[in-house]
Amino acid sequence: MGIDEIGKLVALFISALTLLNGIYDFIKKSKKQKRLWGSHAELVMKISWITFFFLSGYFISKHFEYKFKQPLIEKLIQEKNQTHKLKAELNTSFQSILERSKSKIHELDIAVQNLQESYNEINEEISKKNGNLFGVILYSEPNYQGRPLFFKNGEYSSLHNFGFGDKVRSIKILDQLQVTLWEDVYYQGYRKRLIASAPVLSEELDNKISSMTIERMP
Description:
It contains two helices and seven strands; from the N terminus they run ααβββββββ. It is α+β, with helices and mostly antiparallel strands. α1 packs antiparallel against α2. 55% of the residues lie in helices and 19% in strands. The termini are far apart.
């Protein structure tokens, strides 16, 4: 038990002892059939002393309670402030890392798209110079935007194998080729034939193409 707690108990003990003394005197005088509290002066003095000791004990106990609790309260406030500060620093660091990551991912996406477009342009030029009439470019967005992917003439039973199943939204046809598109894999479902580039696909095929064939025009 600490010194503060001992002082608090002593103050309460003094107040209780004073109160008990007044009650004892009250009972003693009652038995002798005297005035309960003696003269008016004695009454005033007893009430004053009881009030004094009671209030003294009360304020002393509050004082020790304040001295005991205040350091704890200040410590809790300090820890709370430190926690808020650490939380704010972590949040700032996280946001900074997140923004840098988003920027790097965006730069990487642009680099991959540029590389794919360069690859498609090279293939297109090679095809024209060699006189080979083949090749189409599929795009993941309308108006030849988004991710491009080049295909030469042939049969493709599942565009899902190329990561392009149900993702085609526009098609650029190179030279004189015809492209037959199917809604499902293995040339099933709705079918449509194209002989010219399509910057926008019809509702039946937009984001729904799963297989296709590319061949020369008859």
